Structures are given as C-alpha cells and as structure tokens.
Amino acid sequence: MKLRWESLPLELKTTFRIAHGASDKRFNVLVFLDDGVGEAAAVPYYGESQEGIIEYLKTVPDLGEEVFDLDQVLARRPPGSRAARSAIDQALHDLWGKRLGQPLYKLLGLNPMRLPPTSITIGMDDPKVMARQARESGQPILKLKLGGDCDEERVSAIRAVTNAKIRVDANAGWSREQALKIIPRLAEFDLEFIEQPLAVEDLQGYFWLKKELRELNVNLPIFADESVKTSRDVVLLAGAVDGVVVKLMKTEGIREALRTIHTARAHDMQVMLSCMVESSVGVTAAAHLAPLCDHVDLDGPLLIRIDPYAGLTYDGSKITLPERPGIGVMKRSTA
C-alpha cells in the first residue's frame, strides 16, 4: 500500500473560542493509503501541528499489502503523532471497505438508522453573542463552550432564548473549587451533562467531585473528554464519571475507538462520539461508529467555510451516513 499525504487548510466560518484559546483557521492533513483516505486534525492544545504530523508521516515504514489484516498493518505505525496514526487507521478502514465494496458500518455490523442526533457547538464568547447564535441556530441540541469568566451568565442567557437540549464543555477550564461552586448552579438550567470540568491530569479530582456533588444532591452527569484518550484511560475513571467522549484523534483511529466504546459500556458508562475541527473525511469516518453511542457531537464540517469532501449529510441535527464503500467520502468538484 502506498502512503502519501497532502495539506488541508480549513477556514472557519466564525472565530472558534474555547478555554484554551481562539482560532480562525486550522491546518489539517489528508492521508492516503492507495485510494483510502483519512484525516489528521492539527489541534494545538493536543500538541499537534501540521508540520509535526507531516514529519511523523515521513517516518512511517512500508505498511505491506495485506489490507485485511488490520491490526497487523496498524502495528507497523511507529510511536508519535496521535492524529497522524488516526489518519492512517481511517485510510486503512476506507481501503478495506472499498476493496470489499461495502460501507464501513456494514462491515462493523451496525445499523445506520440508529445514529443519535448531533449537537451544534456554540464557541465561548460574550453571553449576548452566544445567546444570539443559539437563537439563530434553531437547533434542538446545543453544546456550549465554557471555562472562563461569566460561565453562569452564558448558560443563563442561552437558556432564556431556547428550549433546546444543552450540554456544556469546560475543556478542563475549572479548578476543583470552581467546578464544585458552579456545577450546582448550572444544574438549575436543565443541562444534559458537563464535559471535562477538571484538569486533564486530575483523575483523582473526578472521584472527589462525584462524592462532593452527591453530598449536595446534584445529579448532573459528568463526562470525561481530554482525560480519556484510549480504553486504558476509561478503566482509570470507572466509578468517577458518568460518561466518556470518544474522538478518533485521541484513540488513534477507529480500531481503538471501538475498544474504548466497548470498555466504557463494560463499566456502565455512557458514550458520546465527538470530533475536532475536521472536514467530512474525519467526521464521516467517526460517524460510522455512531450507532454504538448514546450521544453525538459531530458538527465539524458545519464549522468550516469550504468542505473539500462530501460524506455524511445533515438535516438539522439528523445525520445520514453515505452508502458508498469504505467511509464513503468523495472529493467535491472544484469546477
């Protein structure tokens, strides 16, 4: 199998702000194995850059020709960039499906009619700006980026203009004390759950937070995102969180994402399938796993101005998978 790559600059529709900073552009990488394609998202706060991803890809040895021995092929990836390793995994699964003439969801034995609806992300901003964006979106499920000053005001302003389901993501932006202070107040706004309230490395903090919230009779579910990269991390947080967020860029691809989902299920955790700022290549690859999950946050293609590939489609919050072989993406015409 021939490995090649090309840069993929993505311009966002609006400035995207989270607790770690703001951006107007992302610089991803497309990775190809023969005619299979995957995407590596260069997310700065994950320590990834386009240059680093490409440098990693230059070190990858020959992956052989046995397309159907997935684990053996993936074992040849050297240690390094998670995003690049994920893109290779996606491209291999795409090639696998194309060689067999079947969409990936069929090869995984999944029902494409069982995809949960996706949330739409509202970046962290002034409460009035976020409220306007929420109202204008008209979407039934919103994910709010928090992790700064005025977080309660942000949620209050949005709840005042919409009856949508709301989930919030602090992106590790709160200390233990801040989380314990604000979560009971946010629970009054009828939220679905809160993602990553604590620092990435503060695993014990989640056990502490669960105990403290239980004593306050606060039952708002807590999900771990940045603290959970693979199935091994799920085990470390068993009993401390109610759910985990699975992203292909963290799990290094579809293969480990499946293991992470099943491990979470074995520990009675909920699962949300999510993405970074990605084109339809990476997000469609992830979406084939959506029937296994409780929640979906796969709005990446909706955040960018020009999506170079066609793949999954949106009807409001409803996602439909393509029926083409592999992950099912197709390069759009530039004419």
Structural summary, described in words:
The chain is an alpha/beta fold and 335 residues long. The chain folds into two domains: 99 residues, Enolase-like, N-terminal domain (Enolase-like, domain 1, 2-Layer Sandwich), CATH 3.30.390.10; 225 residues, Enolase-like C-terminal domain (TIM Barrel, Alpha-Beta Barrel). Helices cover 33% and strands 23% of the residues. It contains twelve helices and 15 strands. The chain has an eight-stranded parallel β-sheet with strand order 4-5-6-7-8-9-10-11. Strand 2 and strand 3 form a beta hairpin. It is globular. The model has no long low-confidence stretch (mean pLDDT 95).
Question: What layout of secondary structure does this protein have?
Answer:
Layout: E1 3-18, E2 21-33, E3 36-40, H1 50-57, H2 70-74, H3 82-100, H4 104-107, E4 120-122, H5 127-137, E5 141-145, H6 151-159, E6 165-169, H7 176-186, E7 191-195, H8 203-215, E8 222-224, H9 231-236, E9 243-246, H10 248-251, H11 254-266, E10 270-274, H12 280-287, E11 295-297, E12 309-310, E13 313-315, E14 318-320, E15 330-331
Parallel strand pairs: 4-5, 5-6, 6-7, 7-8, 8-9, 9-10, 10-11
Antiparallel strand pairs: 1-2, 2-3, 12-15, 13-14
Helix pairs in contact: 5-6, 7-8
Summary?
The protein has twelve helices and 15 strands. The protein has helices at 50-57, 70-74, 82-100, 104-107, 127-137, 151-159, 176-186, 203-215, 231-236, 248-251, 254-266, 280-287; strands at residues 3-18, 21-33, 36-40, 120-122, 141-145, 165-169, 191-195, 222-224, 243-246, 270-274, 295-297, 309-310, 313-315, 318-320, 330-331.
